[in-house]
């Protein structure tokens, strides 16, 4: 995909598209120059849109399907079981978040966020899972008898997603003219978050109310997000050149990947952390009773190591384009953002 074509397409709402990139060409390349071709496609996509679709990523469809099955089984458990696993602390970012408890937003004003949450909370429930060997924070797991195979399925998938994240970060390093392994010792502690999401079926008219969404417009916090969608749809991405939201329709077998805030800060906003939201999907997805169907997705939020110092990369600033942000650690940034989105 020529970057010149991408630039033209991205800047018009009529021709806006999220590029589809075959990571298999990078994974199976015989030379660094071959890898660089795919790396440039990935970096160009993140420069212009902030989002890409990845095919050829190497995660078997059956593995993804099983994660969706186990996630659905979890959310069908009784509230009394799920509530025992409730999310408690932004530093941990683990556990179950019931419908109405979260309101993602770009705002940093506590009063404004509280008002948004009271008026139009996000219509979703989630389960947050971190690295299971953490000595400070533990995961909250349902009993095996309540959710057979759930824990092992999610632990296996967590590792699989971390490994894919590492591959994509190597490609990004090449595309930014860094050593391919530049990020390796900055992401190896697996300070990530696997988020299972369930958006309940709801009257479409309720989702059309002013300010109401399944998930409000927001950017993600870390390096990358790997998003696995079902076929319902509803994800929208802001065209960063026009400010208009555009559908990111599901493409079977692909993963939606987007840049997070910390990677944008690292790159001095050369790579875009783009706003996105989840709304009512197109009308053909709603049934005759005007119900928006249940939607599932699986998001793997990839983060640098908790203590990693995020400051402008040496080749991402120059005279006339100075560093925009002061240094910050991963933990400082993410905990601050999480603390503002979930109410106790």
Question: What attributes characterize this protein structure?
Answer:
344 residues; alpha+beta; Jelly Rolls; eight-stranded mixed β-sheet; four-stranded antiparallel β-sheet; 11 helices; 32% helix; 19% strand; disordered N terminus; metal ion binding; DIOX_N
Describe the structure.
This protein has 344 residues and is α+β, with helices and mostly antiparallel strands. The chain has a single domain (3-339), classed as Sandwich (Jelly Rolls). 32% of the residues lie in helices and 19% in strands. It has helices spanning 3-10, 24-27, 32-48, 61-75, 79-83, 110-119, 150-175, 184-187, 204-207, 261-266, 330-339, and strands at residues 20-22, 51-55, 95-97, 125-129, 193-199, 202-203, 215-218, 224-229, 235-238, 245-247, 255-259, 276-278, 291-292, 295-302, 309-310, 328-329. The strands form four sheets. An eight-stranded mixed β-sheet has the order 1-2-11-8-14-5-4-3. A four-stranded antiparallel β-sheet has the order 7-12-9-10, with no helix packed on it. Strands 6-13 form a two-stranded antiparallel sheet. α1 (3-10) runs parallel beside α3, α3 crosses α7 and α4 (61-75) packs across α7. It is globular. Residues 1-5, 104-114 and 116-120 have low confidence and may be disordered.
């Amino acid at each position: 995909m020529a970057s010149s074509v991408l630039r033209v397409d991205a800047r018009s709402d009529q021709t806006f598209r999220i590029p589809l990139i075959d990571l298999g060409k990078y994974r199976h390349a015989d030379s660094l120059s071959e890898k660089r071709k795919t790396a440039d496609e990935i970096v160009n996509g993140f420069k212009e849109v902030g989002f890409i679709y990845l095919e050829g990523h190497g995660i078997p469809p059956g593995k993804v399907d099983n994660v969706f099955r186990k996630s659905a089984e979890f959310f069908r458990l009784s509230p009394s079981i799920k509530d025992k696993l409730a999310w408690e602390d932004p530093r941990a970012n683990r556990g179950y978040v019931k419908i109405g408890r979260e309101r993602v937003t770009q705002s940093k004003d506590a009063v404004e966020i509280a008002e948004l949450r009271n008026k139009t909370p996000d219509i979703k429930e989630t389960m947050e899972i971190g690295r299971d060997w953490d000595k400070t924070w533990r995961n909250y797991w349902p009993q095996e008898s309540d959710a057979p195979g759930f824990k092992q399925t999610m632990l296996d998938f967590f590792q699989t997603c971390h490994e894919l994240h590492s591959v994509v970060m190597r490609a990004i390093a090449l595309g930014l003219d860094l050593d391919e392994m530049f990020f390796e010792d900055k992401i190896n502690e697996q300070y990530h978050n696997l988020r299972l999401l369930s958006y309940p079926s709801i009257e479409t008219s309720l989702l059309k109310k002013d300010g109401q969404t399944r998930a409000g417009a927001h950017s993600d916090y870390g390096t990358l997000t790997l998003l696995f969608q079902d076929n319902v749809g509803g994800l929208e991405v802001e065209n960063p050149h026009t400010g208009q939201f555009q559908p990111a329709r599901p493409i079977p077998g692909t993963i939606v990947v987007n840049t997070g805030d910390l990677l944008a800060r690292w790159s001095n906003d050369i790579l875009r952390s783009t706003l996105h939201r989840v709304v009512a999907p197109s009308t053909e997805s709603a049934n005759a009773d005007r119900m928006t169907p249940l939607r599932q997705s699986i998001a793997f939020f990839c983060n640098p190591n908790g203590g990693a110092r995020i400051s402008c990369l040496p080749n991402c600033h120059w005279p006339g384009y100075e560093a925009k942000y002061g240094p910050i650690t991963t933990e400082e940034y993410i905990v601050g953002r999480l603390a503002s989105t979930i109410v106790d």
